Amino acid sequence: MTAPLVDIRNVSHRFGQLAVLKDVSLRIEPGSYTILLGPSGSGKTTLLSILGGFVTPSQGKVYIRGEDCTSVPPARRPTTTVFQDYALFPHMSVGGNVGFGLRMQGVDGATRAARAREALALVDLAAAFDKKPHQLSGGQRQRVALARALVIEPAVLLLDEPLGALDLKLRRQMQDELKAIQKRVGTAFIHVTHDQEEAMALADHCVVMNDGRIEDEGPPERVYARPSTRFAATFMGESTILSGTVAEAKGGTATVATPIGSVCVPGAAQAGAQIALAIRPEHLVLGANEGGVGLGMAKISDVVFQGSFKRVLATSTVDAALRFIAKAPASATVQTGDTVAISCQAGDMILLAN
């Protein structure tokens, strides 16, 4: 097995009495696009700050390219950070901003200018070299910050919610551009966000964090389709959660007693265990579904048209605590107040520890 580019080993950190990271271990491979995903307070930004050298962990080690960088200051480690507010110098030209890191390294003016122009061309801003930051749009300033980070050729580029200040259309455009730039330069990107759609659009390695710990990690397709924990199932996209007790388990199938009846699902479990069944919205069927698992009747409380589909919320008529979240075709004739049968395929139910 090849050595990882970044190896975080048993890192914990406290701010006073508050534990913000709890024994976190993570390996980042060269050339990967890693997303640290989680709600506010999950520890993702603190972990990024530790990687960038702005915070020294209370415990644990951080290795980059096989070297112990735990206590190495930001300017001496092979990382650069792109902050949410861009942190551009308003009095400097765009070219001056991009070349600033090279200037701190003692690179001569002609070489600085040439490399700054190359970096700006990489982000499609070659014509902005002599402009000031205030003359650029938000998306352009974001790309300048990216060029400034890339020009010093870091081993790892750290991005702290870089798209958070942009509007929806520009954010999606920048997602495409970030992914394309990362593929071109081959640098490992580690990107913090709380936006699940952003994570799925960009990552080839998704790390879901909660309460200072890693809940799940892997390719976003796997984390979404087969999350490891209940938290991951509800944070990485939406899920209907059905709680129950395993009544019987044999032959790779578990029979689960739930408030809406007995359900048989594929998966390994122990009889008597308290578990949860997660069902993604696209796997729920409104109406009769021959061959599927019946989940009873439900009353529709809300229907929201979202372009290619309708997002439907419904409450079980048997268990008022059970709320279904479904994606119905845009052409579906469902409306608020309807009572419909709900079902899904057994193989689409994800068995999780409760």
From TrEMBL:
GO terms for biological process: quaternary ammonium group transport. Pfam families: ABC_tran, TOBE_2. One of its GO terms (molecular function) is ATP binding. Residues 6-236 form the ABC transporter domain. GO terms for cellular component: ATP-binding cassette (ABC) transporter complex. SUPFAM superfamilies: MOP-like, P-loop containing nucleoside triphosphate hydrolases. The keyword NADP does not apply. Keywords: ATP-binding, Nucleotide-binding, Transport. Belongs to the ABC transporter superfamily. This is ABC transporter ATP-binding protein. It comes from Mesorhizobium erdmanii.
